[in-house]
Each structure stands twice: as structure tokens, then as C-alpha cells.
């Protein structure tokens, strides 16, 4: 019996993984779009806005259950990086704050470049701020609580399980590099200097994930970063 071409099999598997990754991303974007729709009706039709909020919360619960189940299933099938729940200790919490300080340093540097008119203000940040004013509680809730969970599952958890599962130097290096670049691009939907800013934050988050090997640390770091940005 003839065996299939290894290269063809590999390419087919990668295409399936890319499609699966895109589908998971679309699921998350649909949920966030429900909040955008609710925000659009916040002033003109509060009742309809409330209905969309309810739909968003129900959808969020279903997606969270789906993502958590799929992530655990992936790790059960193959886990060369040895990702798992690890206890929070004084040392690990201090290290987590070290990553947080790194993210703050990137943002402070970037803000100074903007203040001194060396770099432009990110257009998407202005849009986010304007949207938050229409429906402040739910937009801030989504930004601080929901987005960190969903984005860490997608850009770190699923991404490394799909494409960079091997536990070696080059897999780790390119995994962090590409994960951050995708994270940056999807926050700007363009290739600009601002993309580099978000990519830098993505690289720190990816480094955090591979350092602690526990996605809860990454979610906590993302949570702290987003909370700081609205304070």
C-alpha cells in the first residue's frame, strides 16, 4: 500500500489548523461585535441595547466553555511544552509583576513618542475611547475581563498548540515572534508603526506564557494591562 506524501500530509494538516484558528478568531470577533452593536443603540434605543448585551453575555458564556474545553483537549492530545496549572507563589507573582512592568515600560515609551509628536496617536485607541463613552460599564468590563481571557486562549493557547507545539529553541523563538506580529496586526488591521507597538505587547505576553507555562498567568497579565489602561 502506498503511503501519502509526508509533505502533502503536513501541508493539509497546517491548512486545517489555519482554518480552525481563523474560525476561533471569528467566533470571538462576533461576540465583540455584539457589544459594538449594543453600544451603537445605547443612546437611541436603550431597550434594544440591553437585549444585545444579554445576547452578548449568553454568547460569551458559551464561547468561554468551548474555548476552555478545546484548550484542555489539545493539551491532553499533545503537550511538549508541559503547559498546565501551576501554583501561584510569591516568586511567580513577583515575576509576573516584572512582565507587567515591561508592558508598562513599552507603553510609557510609546506615549512619550506620541507626546513629542514623533509618532501618531493610534487611531483604534481613539475609536475605543469614543465607544467606551457610549456604554462605559460594559465596554470597560469587556476590555478588562472578557478580552484578556479570549485573546490569551486564541493568540497564545491555541496558536502555540496549533503551530509551534515543539519545545525547542527555534519553535519558541518563531512562535513568540509570529504570535506577537499577528496580535499587533489584528489590533490595527494595517501595517503601520502602531502595529509594532501592539506587537511588542504581544511578544511580552507570549514570553510570559512560555515562561510560566500556565495560561492563567498570561490572562492575569493581560487583565492588569487593560485595567491600567482605563484607570
TrEMBL record:
Belongs to the UPF0177 family. Keywords: Membrane, Transmembrane, Transmembrane helix. This is CAAX prenyl protease 2/Lysostaphin resistance protein A-like domain-containing protein. Residues 136-227 form the CAAX prenyl protease 2/Lysostaphin resistance protein A-like domain. Pfam families: Rce1-like (PF02517). The chain crosses the membrane at residues 15-32, 52-71, 92-110, 141-163, 170-189, 195-212. The keyword Transit peptide does not apply. The lineage of its organism: Bacteria, Bacillati, Bacillota, Bacilli, Lactobacillales. GO terms for molecular function: endopeptidase activity. The keyword Membrane applies. One of its GO terms (biological process) is CAAX-box protein maturation.
